[in-house]
Amino acid sequence: MKAVAIKEHSVAALADIKEQTLRPNYVKIKIVALAVNPTDLHHTAGVGYVGGILGCDLSGIVEEVGEECNSHVRKRDVVYGVCHGVNLNSIKDGAFAEYALVRDGHIAKIPKDLTFENTAMLGVGITTIS
């Protein structure tokens, strides 16, 4: 799949990467819209890991739900959420890709009167203030 990953210190680029295997407590989301967050710029500027996928804010369509998820989401639900792109535990967990893996509980259904574009930037913002 296509993803924006850290190519080298201070350089991000489009890359072809292997699609991740769904982990038991994660939800696989087909990305429809995303937002650039200041943390993405910090990761690119040097605190991220080479090969890591950037991005934390996203919205999209649920493709698959892990077997240990207790979430209220199901396949084909439209959702927004947050993942920790370029994190030390799994550098491939970023949102700037065709698909993202998001930990159960870090997503919410998009209300009927909002769009993918309206909600893509809510993930980090809502988790920061809550």
TrEMBL record:
<dbReference type="InterPro" id="IPR011032">
    <property type="entry name" value="GroES-like_sf"/>
</dbReference>
<dbReference type="InterPro" id="IPR013154">
    <property type="entry name" value="ADH-like_N"/>
</dbReference>
<comment type="subunit">
    <text>Monomer.</text>
</comment>
<protein>
    <submittedName>
        <fullName>GroES-like protein</fullName>
    </submittedName>
</protein>
<comment type="similarity">
    <text>Belongs to the zinc-containing alcohol dehydrogenase family.</text>
</comment>
<dbReference type="Pfam" id="PF08240">
    <property type="entry name" value="ADH_N"/>
</dbReference>
<keyword id="KW-0560">Oxidoreductase</keyword>
<feature type="domain" description="Alcohol dehydrogenase-like N-terminal">
    <location>
        <begin position="24"/>
        <end position="112"/>
    </location>
</feature>
<dbReference type="InterPro" id="IPR047122">
    <property type="entry name" value="Trans-enoyl_RdTase-like"/>
</dbReference>
<dbReference type="GO" id="GO:0016651">
    <property type="term" value="F:oxidoreductase activity, acting on NAD(P)H"/>
</dbReference>
